[in-house]
Structure formats: C-alpha cells, structure tokens
Amino acid sequence: MTFDLTYTELLAGVGVLVSLLWVWRAGARRARAAANAARSGARLFSLGGRVLFTAGLIVGVQWLVISHPSAGKWLVLAVLGLPALFASYVLTRALTVTVDRRRGERR
Hints:
Elements: H1 7-67, H2 73-95, E1 99-100, E2 105-106
Antiparallel strand pairs: 1-2
Helix pairs in contact: 1-2
C-alpha cells in the first residue's frame, strides 16, 4: 500500500499536528494556572483560619489569667508580654526590607 502525497498535503498535515499540539499545551497551561489559583486561595483561607484560631487561643489564656483574682503581676506580665514579643518579631521581619548584595534583589 503506497500513499501519493504532495508536498502541500504533507505540509498541511504537519500544520494540523502542530496546531493540535499547540492547543493541547495551551489548555494544559490554562488548567495548571487555574489549579494554582485555586490552591493559593485555599492556602489563604487556611492561613486565615489558623491565625484566627491562634489569636483566639492567646486571648482566651490572657482573659483567664487576668480575670483570675490571685494572678500575680509577673504572671500577668508574662501572659501579656510574650505574645507581644512574638508579634513584634514577626512584624519587624515582615516589614524590614533587606538587599541581597550578591544578586541585587530586594526581599
């Protein structure tokens, strides 16, 4: 069985194959971008939930210690001061701009 194809038909066939490959890759790229967007949105809600839970836990312990009549001043200072130290450390790290001298990048 032999096929008699002209150069035009062969070129059209290759063009169709390249077009199909291009459409398939574009669809895969679009699907990957949509999955990344969905994943980052889920991460944001997950992070928000953990932050709210931890903040509620800290406030609960602080309220328990402060409302207890026999709580000493050192205990109250520790309960209020430790979370403030952690928060100030995190905020200072988040708001400080550093420059990587080797690459010249700002982080």
